[in-house]
Amino acid sequence: MTNKLGRPIGDSNVRQLLLEAARLLFCQFPYEKVSTRKIAEQAGVSAALIQYYFNNKFGLFEAMIIENFEPVTKKALQAKNNGDFDSICEVLRFYYKTMAEKPEYARLVFNLFTPNNGGGKRLLSPRIIKAIWAPGKTLLFEGVINDVGPSAKVNADMFRLSFLSLMVFPFLAPDILLKSHKITLNPDFFDQLAKHNLSMLRSSIGLAPKVPHVSSECCSNHKIQNR
Question: What GO annotations for molecular function exist for this entry (predicted)?
Answer without folding.
Answer: DNA-binding transcription factor activity; transcription cis-regulatory region binding
